[in-house]
Amino acid sequence: MQDTIVREITVDAPKKRVFAAISDPEQIIQWFPDAVEGKLEAGEQPVFDFGEYGKNQVYIEAVEPDDYFAYRWIPGSNHFMGDARTQSNTLVEFRLEETETGTKVTLTESGFASLSYENAAERLSDNNGGWDYMMERLSKLFAKA
Q1: 131, 98, 70: which is closest to 10 by C-alpha?
Q2: 76 to each of 33, 53, 116, 124, 137, how far by Cα in Å?
Q3: Domain limits for position 124
Q4: Which of 15, 51, 14 is nearest to 32 (CA)?
């Protein structure tokens, strides 16, 4: 089974602005979850609220300003509350790189092959399509700026 999803986009914006869109609770809701309950700081366990799709508590793995943001979550969970590190989880990473035309955003979600539940292949499929949709939303956020 495939273990990793990778998506890359380049947006016409400086790294600092793109990093804020990914790591600031007030900005991430413009393209990803509908709401964030808690802080997006390393070691924190905020809740991403996806409205009709449920809530998912995540564990913020790392925050390196303007370069890297990572969290662990239980993919496909409609309502997970608790420490994501204690369950089969995936690691979602955003890496930012300055380019001549803006900022390249590389999203990697890894760990699907080690998920312990039966529908891991379905979660991989769902997240493949989900990240296409969300990365397009992130790109459009900067297209209108």
Answers
A1: 98
A2: 14, 9, 13, 9, 19
A3: 4-143
A4: 51
Q: Which domain CATH number covers 67?
A: 3.30.530.20
- Torsion angle of C-alpha atoms 20, 22, 26, 32, degrees rounded to 10: 160
**pLDDT the model gives residue 79:** 80
Determine how β-strand 35-37 pairs with β-strand 4-11. Answer: unpaired
Coil, strand or helix: which one is 134? helix
Pairing of strands 55-57, 79-80: parallel
Question: Would you state the pLDDT for residue 144?
Answer: 59
Is the pLDDT assigned to residue 81 strictly greater than 70? yes
- Mean pLDDT is lowest, of 44-53, 54-63, 77-86, for 77-86
pLDDT of 117 > 80? The answer is no
How many separate domains does the chain show? 1
Contact yes or no for 84/74 (Cβ under 8 A): yes
| Mean pLDDT, residues 99-107 | 96
Q: For residue 50, what are its two tokens?
A: 């996806």
Contact 87, 75 (CB under 8 A): no
